[in-house]
Amino acid sequence: MNNGRVKKTDKMLVPILMADDDESDRVLTRHAFEESCIANPFYFVRDGEELMEFLHRRGAYCNALDAPRPGLILLDLNMPRKNGWEALQEIKADASLCHIPVVVLTTSQQKEDVLRSYDLGVNSFIIKPVKFDQLVQIARCIGRYWLEIGTLPPAI
Asked: What is the per-residue pLDDT for 11?
């Protein structure tokens, strides 16, 4: 059931990793990607600490099968323990992670948050919509650009 949207034929389905502390946002985002016929494997972490554990395969994520290297990270900014900016700064400062595209997906509409995110090396900044159909449209755009049109860097 592809509906002519994001088609995966000759490209491998790269994992998508979402860091967001809000469980309902995680569930809605997964459903929006499913609704958009994006078949890429989807993984979730609840905060920046867990994100870095996943990326470095530490703790609960030491098994590579449970924590594959993501081809794309969706990042919320406002999370406990380690916020999105702290995690983004660590990702972009790490030679083994800095090439993974990071898309901020957050409720913040503050100009300062947008600027700070780009200053830290984010690849895109998207404001979370309030309506599910708008989230589906965003998922389609993310899938179309990052997973179909654009070429992601190879895993190092």
From this structure: 55
